[in-house]
Amino acid sequence: MLYTALGLRGFYDCRHFDTLRQFDSILQGHPCMKKTPGLDMTSGSLGNGLSIGVGMALGAKLDGLDYRVFVMMGDGELQEGMVWEALMAGAKYKLDNLYLIIDYNHLQVDGTVEEIMDIAPLRAKLEAFNWQVAETRHLIGARELSLMKPSMLRPPPPEKFGSANGILALYCCP
């Protein structure tokens, strides 16, 4: 999802998609800001992205800067404890410049999210953390994002699309 969004935004030629996870590719398994144009941070460990996003959004507020921070993650990543700490911090500091987009495909590396560590009822949990929640199955545009502060967007489960393999890909475009 991240590499697709960056390619479609023109940070690099989309022909790089065919080199995903290959040696010397700019598109590695863990995003590296020294190799991949358009990245603000290097990541790897699950759960770090939202915490870093909270720090970026809070830094902008403290410095009086007017920009938005977008964090993309899979639903399997929500099984990490530090994600929930970041959700609490985002609400505590009223980070209305922070947006979380979740690819809710019910999958993680060891099986389904439900089998390994069920995160349901996700919407109720996020609302309990004082986040505004919107669900969508459409491409997300800037106008929709600007209406919610802070926001968590997630598509409905893949079975609602009749997907044969149960995987839902969410591509974010301006």
Distance between the termini: 14 Å
Task: Supply the number of helical segments.
Answer: 6
Strand content: 5-15%
Strand order of the largest sheet: 1-2-6-5
Order of helices and strands: HHEHEEEHHEHE
> In this structure, how is the largest beta sheet organized?
4 strands, parallel
**Helicity range:** 25-40%
Model regions low in confidence, pLDDT < 50 over at least 5 residues = 148-174
- Provide the structure class: alpha/beta
What global shape is seen?
A: globular
Number of strands: 6
Radius of gyration: 16 Å
Mean pLDDT: 78
Task: Please give a handful of descriptors for the protein shown.
174 residues; alpha/beta
Task: Outline the secondary-structure elements.
Elements lengths: L1 H7 L39 H15 L6 E6 L6 H12 L5 E6 L3 E2 L2 E2 H5 L4 H7 L3 E4 L6 H5 L4 E4 L20
Parallel strand pairs: 1-2, 2-6, 5-6
Antiparallel strand pairs: 3-4
Write up this protein.
With 174 residues, the chain is an alpha/beta fold. The chain has six helices and six strands; from the N terminus they run ααβαβββααβαβ. It has a four-stranded parallel sheet with strand order 1-2-6-5, with helices on one face. A two-stranded antiparallel sheet has the order 3-4. Strand 3 and strand 4 form a beta hairpin. Helix 2 packs parallel to helix 3. The protein is globular. The two termini are 14 Å apart.
In short:
The chain is 29% helix and 14% strand.
